[in-house]
Design brief:
Layout (H helix, E strand, L loop, with lengths): L1 H26 L6 H21 L10 H24 L10 H22 L5 H19 L1 H6 L4 H26 L14 H26 L6 H28 L15 H21 L4
Helix pairs in contact: 1-2, 2-3, 2-5, 2-10, 3-4, 3-5, 4-5, 5-10, 7-8, 7-9, 8-9, 9-10
Amino acid sequence: MSILSSTTFKRILSALVALPIYLYLIITDSFMSLPILLCSSVISLICLYEFYLVTDKEDNGKAFIEVGLFAGLLVNVVMYFFAFGKIYGFGRYIGIYDARVIMSIILVFLVLVLILQIFKRPIKGGVYSISVTVFGLIYIVLSFSHIILIKAMANGIYYLILLNVVIMINDIGAYFGGVFFGKHKINSPISPNKSWEGYFSGLFFSIFSVIITNQAFISFYSRDLFTIVEAAILGIIISIFGNFGDLIESAIKRDCFTKDSGSIIPGHGGMWDVFDAMIFTLPLFYYFLVLIGVP
């Protein structure tokens, strides 16, 4: 029990220190909204770096870290220019944006990685090295950088707060539900310690948190984001796919015989450990908002 208390204390202390900084970066519109670019770049690139270290198999293949991080920074910058170009009047610097801009970065990045593999690395492990480098860029950076697109939407701040609240409450509910009530293991080879009680606790609190947060926005800020039915459905979707994000990270770490992606955040592990659910849900949430017509 003492170990549990120590871990819980570290988690809470880390949240008290990091959460205000994170909230400021996603909420403020100061400095032409550059803080959201800083937030997305720092988090996604640290997560990408941790992913590259976790998947490092030395002579059997490893990512091209420097090239991957540089390409990740470019993806974030392009997302920022697209999202805020019209708002701040510098859209002309990127021209007409569409999916081809991101695709061109990825393709040029792929060609560069292929060239480096041929001239700088042995043939052994080449396919693995290239695949890990490109996959990390798409899976982590391209996904997480959707936080910039959401921020630039109408009521984008409120959508980001809601998404973060739901994912956090889902994680807390699942954690404490598993600790205090977990008796029936899911028996997944990926996460053998997770229980059904923990999972359904997270699901319940996820639905509850969407409804309550949405009602709070209506009552205090006159921001009616979703109906109660939409909020409940959204809570289910975020919980399910947030858990998938956690399972995907766990599967990758287990395949690489790693427990935590890093130790940058005491009590939580690495940055990737903290934002694994956000990485998976951010693009889904963004395109859901686009689908229902949020400008």
